[in-house]
């Protein structure tokens, strides 16, 4: 067996709007930090763009054009500079931003590891066709999350989406 060399650069995509999503990111970062094939992890919320002229952006939900352009460009740069994407996908609260980032990454011919989660394990497992066929590998978040620490991000072996009703 050859020694693993940390060459992979990861774009860690995830919604970050509730406590469950934020906790998953913390855990994913710990697992990815243990992985011997990873050189760097980029998480967009660690690189938040700040518009110094924006006052109380959390009130009202309407962000400045400067913030929107800066955030969008920073996220695209993170994807462009990554060799692989890891997406913590909340199956209970589908996030359009994550879906866009996955599509953009695949358009750049970069592998995507999808890690879907649900808080309702009895829920029927279903996934959109474009997402299911678009990702390279699936690691089930509720049962296989720890595999992020040992997955070979240098060769990114495929593991197609199975066991989901495709819609």
UniProtKB/TrEMBL annotation:
GO molecular function, one term: nucleoside deoxyribosyltransferase activity
Pfam families, per database record: Nuc_deoxyrib_tr (PF05014)
UniProt KW rRNA processing keyword: no
Protein origin, superkingdom: Bacteria
Keyword Membrane included in the entry's annotation: no
Alphabetized InterPro entries for the sequence: Nucleoside_deoxyribTrfase (IPR007710)
Keywords of this entry: Glycosyltransferase, Transferase
EC number: 2.4.2.6
Protein name, entry field: Nucleoside deoxyribosyltransferase
Lineage of source species: Bacteria, Bacillati, Bacillota, Bacilli, Lactobacillales
């Amino acid at each position: 067996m050859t020694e693993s060399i940390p060459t992979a650069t990861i774009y860690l995509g995830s919604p970050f709007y509730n406590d469950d999503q934020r906790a998953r990111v913390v855990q994913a970062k710990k697992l990815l930090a243990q992985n011997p094939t990873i050189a760097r992890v980029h998480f967009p919320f660690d690189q938040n763009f700040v518009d110094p002229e924006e006052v109380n952006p959390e009130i009202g939900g309407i962000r400045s054009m400067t913030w929107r352009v800066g955030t969008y460009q920073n996220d695209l740069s993170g994807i462009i500079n990554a060799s692989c994407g890891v997406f913590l996908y909340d199956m209970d609260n589908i996030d359009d931003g994550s879906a866009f980032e996955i599509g953009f990454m695949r358009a750049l011919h970069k592998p995507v590891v999808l890690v879907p989660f649900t808080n309702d394990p009895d829920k029927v497992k279903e996934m959109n066709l474009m997402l299911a066929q678009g990702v390279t590998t699936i690691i089930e978040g509720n049962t296989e999350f720890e595999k992020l620490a040992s997955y070979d991000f240098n060769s990114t072996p495929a593991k197609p989406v199975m066991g989901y009703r495709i819609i």
